[in-house]
Design a protein that fits this description.
- The structure is a single chain.
- This protein has ten helices and 31 strands.
- The protein is of the alpha+beta class.
- A four-stranded antiparallel sheet has the order 4-31-30-29. A four-stranded antiparallel sheet has the order 7-8-9-10.
- A hairpin with a 7-residue loop joins strand 1 and strand 2.
- Helix 1 runs antiparallel to helix 2.
- The protein is globular, with a radius of gyration of 31 Å.
Length: 492
C-alpha cells in the first residue's frame, strides 16, 4: 500500500509543477475537451488547486501509516526475518531463570533407589570431598515432540518424566517426600549409566550406554519391565598378554538410513555399527586416528555415512587447538593448549554450525563449510574467580542448542549455573571472532542488547537438554536433581 501511495505522490507532484501550454477549447464546456499544440483532442486537466490538496492529504496518510506497516511485516510476509529474530533473542535469553527443582527421592517397592541412597550419603560430605563418580545425572534427552524426558544417573537409575507434569509442578517448592506422579518409568539397573538417547524413529525406545560396560541397552517404555528388550555388545578384544581388553561405550547415534542401524563410540577410538536385524554384534567397526575415548559422535548426512562404509577410515581430521590458534587476538592474550572435547552438537537452526565444548570450559563453533572457528567463548579460569568447586574429571559436561535463535546452552565448569551463548552465524554475534571490528558500526542500543547471559542455579549442573518446541531447559545436577529453567510464571 505504501509503495502505491508514494507512486501516486510522485505523479501528482510532476503534474502540479508542469507549466501549462497554450491551448484553445472547443465544443461544450461539460465535455471537458481541449486541443493541444499538436491539434490532438484530449481531456482537460482538473484545476491545480485540487491537485495540491490531494497531494497534501496523501502525504499525511503516508506519514500516519508508514510506521504501522513497517512493524507489521511479519503479518504481511508470514515469516520472521532472521536478523529481527536475532535482535530480540537477547531479550528472550535475559528472561530465563530457574523456576523449578525436582530432587531424585524415588523408591522402588518401598525401598529408596540407589540414586536416592547416594544422594543421602552425599549430604554428609562437603562439595570438595563428595564422591561425584557415584552419583549425579549424566545425560538427558527429549523425545521428538517434547512430551517425555528421559534421564540417567551415575548410580544406574533410568527415569522417564512427563514434561507437562513437571512444568505444572515447577511452581511448588522442593519436597522431601516422593512424588511419583510425574514419573512414567523408573528403573534401577545397579550399574553406571553415562548416556541416553531416544530412538527418534521409534518413540517407544530409549537406548543407554555405560563407559564401564560394552553393552548397549535398549528399553521399550511401552512395556514396564526392568529388563531391556534388546542388548547389543561389542566384540571382545584380546591383548598381547592374552587377557580381555575392557571396552566401554560413550555415545549413541541412530543412522538416517533406517531404524535398524545404530552407532556407538567406545573408549578405544572405535565406532561400532550394529544392524539389529542381523546380530547383537557389530556388523562394522570404524577405527579412528585416536586410541582414546570418543566422547561424542554425529551422523551428519546419509551420504557421509555411506561413504565411510566403503572407506572404513576417517575422511579427514582436525586438531581444534590449531584452528583456534588462527584467531590472532585470542592467541595474543592467552596460551592455547589442546584440551579434551566434552561435546559436539549441530545447530538445529543452522546445520553447518558444529558447536564444541572443551574440558577447560571454552566453547565455540566450527564452520563445516570452510572448517574455521567462527565463534569462541572463553570464560575466566576458576582460580581467577577464587572458585573452590572442583569438577569430576570423569564426568563429561553435556551442553545443548535451543531449537531456534542459535543459542548454545553450556554448563558452567565451576559455578552453579549455565551460559546462554549467542552463536548467531553472523559477525553481529558477541561471540563471533570479528565482533569487535563491527562494534563501531552498531548502534549503542543494539550492541548493548547483544550479549551472552549467565543464569545461576541452586545446584551444580552436569548436563542439560532443551525442549524441541518451546525452548524450556531441563538441567541435571551433581545431586541427581532436575532443574527447570525458563521464563518465570506470571499471574494475570
Amino acid at each position: 500500500m505504501l509503495s502505491n501511495i508514494h507512486h501516486v505522490t510522485a505523479r501528482l507532484t510532476v503534474s502540479a509543477t508542469r507549466v501549462p501550454t497554450t491551448r484553445r477549447s472547443i465544443g461544450s464546456p461539460t465535455l471537458g475537451l481541449e486541443i493541444g499544440e499538436n491539434n490532438k483532442l484530449r481531456r482537460k486537466k482538473k484545476p491545480i488547486q485540487r491537485i495540491h490538496i490531494l497531494f497534501a492529504r496523501i502525504s499525511a496518510l503516508s506519514l500516519i501509516y508508514q510506521h504501522q506497516w513497517h512493524r507489521s511485516l511479519i503479518e504481511l510476509n508470514g515469516r520472521i526475518d532472521p536478523k529481527y529474530r536475532h535482535s530480540v533473542s537477547s531479550l528472550l535469553a535475559q528472561s530465563y531463570s530457574q523456576i523449578g527443582a525436582f530432587p531424585h527421592l524415588y523408591q522402588i517397592d518401598g525401598v529408596p533407589c540407589q540414586t536416592h541412597v547416594n544422594r543421602s550419603v552425599h549430604g554428609m560430605y562437603d562439595d570438595i570431598q563428595a564422591p561425584f563418580r557415584k552419583q549425579g545425572i549424566s545425560a538427558l534427552d527429549f523425545d521428538n515432540k517434547g512430551i517425555y524426558l528421559v534421564s540417567v544417573t551415575k548410580s544406574g537409575c533410568l527415569t522417564v518424566h512427563d514434561f507437562e507434569t513437571l512444568y505444572c509442578q515447577s511452581n511448588s517448592l522442593p519436597s522431601t517426600e516422593e512424588d511419583a506422579t510425574k514419573l512414567v518409568l523408573h528403573l534401577s539397573l545397579r550399574q553406571q549409566l553415562d548416556f541416553v538417547r531416544w530412538n527418534h524413529a521409534n518413540q517407544d525406545e530409549v537406548v543407554c550406554t555405560s563407559m564401564k560396560s560394552n553393552e548397549v541397552l535398549i528399553f521399550d517404555i511401552g512395556y514396564i519391565s526392568s529388563k531391556p528388550s534388546q542388548v547389543l555388545r561389542t566384540r571382545q578384544t584380546i591383548s598381547l598378554h592374552g587377557s580381555n581388553v575392557h571396552k566401554g561405550l560413550s555415545d549413541i547415534a541412530f543412522t538416517s538410513i533406517d531404524n535398524s542401524r545404530l552407532l556407538a563410540s567406545d573408549t578405544h577410538g572405535v565406532i561400532n555399527v550394529w544392524d539389529r536385524r542381523m546380530s547383537s554384534l557389530p556388523c562394522l567397526e570404524f577405527t579412528s586416528n585416536s586410541r582414546s575415548t570418543l566422547n561424542r559422535i554425529h551422523n551428519i548426512r546419509l551420504t557421509f555415512f555411506l561413504f565411510i562404509q566403503i572407506c572404513q577410515s576417517p575422511l579427514t581430521s582436525f586438531k581444534l587447538a590449531s584452528l583456534i590458534e588462527k584467531i590472532t587476538p585470542l592467541k595474543e592474550q592467552s596460551d592455547i593448549v589442546a584440551k579434551e572435547i566434552h561435546s559436539i552438537d549441530l545447530n538445529p537452526s543452522c546445520p553447518y554450525q558444529l558447536a564444541f565444548h572443551l574440558d577447560d570450559g571454552w566453547s565455540g563453533v566450527l564452520d563445516l563449510y570452510n572448517f574455521q572457528v567462527t565463534h569462541i567463548h572463553c570464560p575466566p579460569p576458576a582460580w581467577l574467580n577464587e572458585s573452590t568447586d572442583s569438577s569430576d574429571p570423569l564426568c563429561l559436561r553435556k551442553p545443548s542448542w535451543l531449537p531456534t535463535d542459535s543459542i548454545y546452552v553450556v554448563v558452567s565448569s565451576y559455578d552453579n549455573g549455565i551460559h546462554l551463548l549467542d552463536f548467531y552465524p553472523d559477525s553481529s554475534s558477541p561471540s563471533h571472532v570479528d565482533f569487535k571490528d563491527n562494534a563501531d558500526s552498531l548502534s549503542g542500543e543494539n550492541n548493548q542488547n547483544k550479549q551472552n547471559i549467565f543464569v545461576p542455579s541452586s545446584e551444580g549442573i552436569t548436563a542439560c537438554a532443551a525442549h524441541p518446541l518451546n525452548g524450556t531447559i531441563i538441567a541435571g545436577t551433581k545431586n541427581s536433581s532436575l532443574l527447570m529453567i525458563f521464563q518465570r510464571h506470571q499471574s494475570c
